[in-house]
Amino acid sequence: MTNIKVRMFSVKTFSAALYLILFLPFVSVLFADFIPTTFGAYADQRLLLTLFVSFVTAAGMFWLSFQGALPASLRELGPFFLLLLTFVIPAFQPISQPFHVVEPVFYALYFFAFGLLGGIFQRTNLVRESTQVIVFVAVIACFFYAAMTINVYLFAILDEFSRLDDVIPWGFVNIRYWSHVATWLVPLFPLSLIIGSWKDNRLWKLGVAFTGALWWWVIFQSSSRGSMIGLFIGFLLVWVCFGKAALPWVKLFVRFAIYGLVTWLMLSVLIPSLVFDEVQIRGINATTSGRIPLWQEAWVMSLQNFPFGMGGQSWLTHEILTETYRSSPKFGHPHNMYLMWAAEFGWIAIFGLAVLGSVALRRLWQRASGIRAGDNRHALVLVAFTASVTAALVHAGVSAVFIAPGSMLIGLLVLSVFWALISPDLQPVVSNQRRFSASALAGYMLVIAFTLAGSLWFREVLRYHQAMTEDLVYYQENVPQGMLPRFWFHGNFPRHPSQMPPEK
């Protein structure tokens, strides 16, 4: 009886702490227009993400050391260590560009953090609780965003502003940053009517339906091809992999998409046709939108210093290699996250990603086989999170919006739960495992070493931002492509010698 009470107290404490932790990322991402900023919304989100990743990694390793579970957990994280090395090793090749270490270390920490956090969820038997908290917070935040979107829409209609795509979605410096956040979150909406104590509440059902309809409407309104393609492929994948077990989620997913289509016809076609002389609808472009020259350039870059790449942010500063790209529009990335990483961090980094992906696919297939055989534990949760992860990773293949801090903040939470769901059952951590053994002391030393190294890296991150701030006016006035989205929303860093500001 005492153990049950302790377990209930631990679960309530964990849920309360997780609610508080998740509040900040969702508010920062979805409601940036309403909160004060220090460096600007985009840069503040990046700073929050770097702190969040560092804190999760350090706190997670300390807790596992305290519980005596760090050695076993580190063995489970083998694919992440490989990925960490394959991102970090190329960063230390001799490159003259300043701050070229910041991004590869950041990505390596990001992947390691979600693996570590997912392992902790699994080892503490708190997968169900963490899933419910994340889904609940996500739906509540998305509901208020949807409600405020209606306000924006009404003001636009009343002010006779016909270009709705210029104001909706709102709160993001680029509509494509919103679309990747939507790609992560839309598959979770059906799950909110399947799990949790609130799933049978009529008011909750209406609120979720409203949220799903409005978010799908904005996807159609902004003609987000990446989101549509990613969500469709994720939908097909889970239906094929999980079969009949996925049907409750599949039906709700299709229902919300239909709600969104009807809402689009009403809000983007019918009402504007009654108010405006001419209805302006953002069309879906059937072309590649000039991506092919960018992909060709990234491919050629990836072969220049095989397999280590040309260095962090070299896409922005390298000498152009292909004639087709020379005459093409310049962006902060080649509109393909994987080709960008191959160009800058080399095919060795892609190899690390491929190893991690193959491990994830093998585990997912094993879980799916068990679910088709009748193991319904976490079945629909896994369906929803598999669709979310699949959609987001496919979307990243036709754009690099995954690297935007808002997407990465939401993605860290989704990926952590997904990794916990596909991980093999681990020995749970219990209170009597706390000890100061040799392995625990080694874990503490590892945490101290990580904290010191992380502090040096974070100092470089802040120096990176200071350098960007000092040169911002110069780049705005002298570089034709102006401000481009990368680490600090200023894509012309590291500095190329030909773009150095004049010495004072």
Give the number of DSSP strands: 0
Oligomer: single chain
What characterizes the major β-sheet? none
Low-confidence stretches: 1-9
Distance between the termini: 73 Å
Could you say which structural class the secondary elements and strand pairing correspond to? mainly alpha
List the helices and strands in order. Answer: HHHHHHHHHHHHHHHHHHH
Mean pLDDT: 85
**Which of globular, elongated, flat, extended, rod-shaped describes the shape?**
globular
Count, helices: 19
The helical percent reads 55-70%
Structural domains: how many:
1
> In percent, how much strand structure appears in the residues?
under 5%
Our Rg estimate from Cα atoms comes to 23 Å
Main attributes of the structure:
504 residues; mainly alpha; globular; disordered N terminus
Describe this structure in words.
This protein has 504 residues and is mainly alpha-helical. Helix content is 68%, strand content 0%. α1 packs antiparallel against α18, α6 packs across α9 and α15 crosses α16.
Short description:
With 504 residues, the chain is mainly alpha-helical. The chain has helices spanning 2-30, 41-66, 70-76, 78-88, 102-123, 127-158, 175-185, 188-191, 202-221, 225-242, 247-275, 291-302, 314-317, 323-326, 337-345, 347-372, 379-396, 405-422, 438-478.
Strand-helix topology:
Layout lengths: L1 H29 L10 H26 L3 H7 L1 H11 L13 H22 L3 H32 L16 H11 L2 H4 L10 H20 L3 H18 L4 H29 L15 H12 L11 H4 L5 H4 L10 H9 L1 H26 L6 H18 L8 H18 L15 H41 L26
Helix pairs in contact: 1-6, 1-18, 2-5, 2-18, 2-19, 4-5, 4-16, 5-18, 6-9, 6-18, 7-10, 7-17, 7-18, 9-11, 10-17, 12-15, 15-16, 17-18
